[in-house]
Amino acid sequence: MNIKFRLILMNFMQFFIWGAWLLTIGAYWFQNKHWSGAQFGAIFSTMGIASIFMPTITGIIADRFINAEKLYGIMHILGACVLFSLPMVKDPGTFFWVILLNMMFYMPTLSLSITVAYSALKNQSIDVVKEYPPIRTWGTVGFIVALWAVSLTHNETSSNQFYIASGVSLLLGLYSFTLPKCRPYAVRTGNKSFANLLGLNAFALFKTPKFAIFFIFSLLLGAALQLTNAYGDTYLHDFAKIPAYQDTIAVKYPAIIMSISQISETLFILAIPFFLRRFGIKYVMLFSMLAWVLRFGLFALGDPAGGLWMIILSCIVYGMAFDFFNISGSLFVETQASPEIRGSAQGMFMMMVNGFGAFFGSRISGFVIDRFFTNADQTKDWHSIWLSFSAYALIIAIIFPFVFRYKHNAALKHAIQHA
User: Fold this and answer.
1) Would you say the CATH fold of 196-419 matches that of 1-184?
2) In contact, 358 and 48? CB cutoff 8 Å
3) How far apart, in whole angstroms, are the C-alpha atoms of residue 133 and residue 81?
């Protein structure tokens, strides 16, 4: 079987698993279990907690002890078992620990899937830079298909979403053992310290002002990403409590509406090279922050009836908000970090976004929503919630261009020209 097709199938299932529950777990939590917002914020923080340390641990294991594709399969099989057990949990405290265990198995597979794909392509002398992005796009397609499948089967508030994710996770885990071998290689430590081996030497980048500022804003934008992941689907579900909106498409199939965000994401990726060449990386990052302002602001003003166009536009804007910072940020790290620590620096970028950003964003937002925007009858003031999130993104956007002093250099221009 063609190796590119096999990797497409791997990426499709990888993100199908996530898409089956990531955006709809809020509806399950609030509509089915009726647990609190602060506790839900803790649930979403598990992604950040797992992202801080698990990818490093599994990376060391794959480098030294076991084939990456086998470790990848084992993690997915264990994740399938945990996902299958989630509907059996009866209290939010236990739910936190079970979902944390699931994220400890799932989050490392994001980087392991890249390792497996790169190894398979290089072993067949296939250009990774040219061929991998189209393969990875099918991961986003898998995420979208999962959202649609859960929505069209009316499982957004049902525990069935976890069973669906569990089944695909088990299938991917077994399939992983048929992928091309990605053997561990002996790490040449030489004079390297233990800190170098674990990639901790990349923390020295914080001594450089441009990197320190960049990583701080990565954390802040990572928090914004968790706000939309955690509450977008729940926000649309809550309109069902208002008679005027009960029969609207957005209320009946909120996950499908939210999937427009992922469709937009695939399209904005194609626009990044043009924007980078035309405006430069600093302003592309700024555009991302302004897009977050619009993302949240349009949610605040929209509704499933006459204001549906604002909700749809918010989902379209998400593509710019997500891609323009994540892709351009990765390019910034690639061109500005020294060659010997580029891998560690990229890991730190992801740790700040998906690790610390996810952790603090979910924890703080859950507390704030419970404390200031939840009424006595447990209904939520979504208009004020989204406006406060929009104000948060606006403050970041106003500060960023004044503190992040950076101009194009030759390395970045060359990278953009070949993007």
Assistant:
1) yes
2) yes
3) 31
Task: Note the pLDDT of residue 31.
Answer: 73
Q: How far apart are CA 391 and CA 315, in angstroms?
A: 18
125: DSSP letter: T
Alpha helices in 1-36 (DSSP H): 3-19, 25-27
374: β partners: 380
| Torsions phi, psi for 299 (to 5 deg) | -60, -40
So what's the pLDDT on residue 189?
43
378: alpha, beta or left? (left if phi > 0; alpha if psi -120 to 50): left
Where would I find the beta strands (DSSP E) of 222-366?
none
Q: Among 88-92, 216-220, 336-340, which is the least confidently predicted range? A: 336-340
Question: Is-contact 58 108, C-beta < 8 A?
Answer: yes
CA distance 151 to 317: 22
Predicted pLDDT at 276: 79
Q: Which of 251, 255, 231, 257 is nearest to 239 (CA)?
A: 251
For residues 128 and 118, is the Cβ–Cβ distance under 8 A? yes
Mean pLDDT on 33-41: 70
Query: Which class does domain 196-419 fall in?
Result: mainly alpha
Domain topology for 1-184: Growth Hormone; Chain: A; (1.20.1250)
Give the model confidence (pLDDT) of 260-289 as tens digits: 888 888 888 777 778 877 888 888 889 999
Who contacts 218 (Cβ-Cβ below 8 Å, separation ≥6)? 325, 329, 349, 352, 353, 357
Residue recorded with tokens 């233990």: 194
Domain ranges of the chain: 1-184, 196-419
Asked whether the predicted pLDDT for residue 340 surpasses 60, the reply is no
Torsional class of 180: left (φ above 0), alpha (ψ -120 to 50), beta (otherwise): beta
Cα 21 from Cα 230, distance rounded (Å): 11
Enclosing H/E stretch for 402: helix 382-403
Rounded distance between C-alpha atoms, residue 398 and residue 384, angstroms = 21
Asked if residue 29 lies in contact with residue 256, where contact means CB atoms within 8 angstroms, the answer is no
* Contact between 35 and 44 (Cβ < 8 Å): no
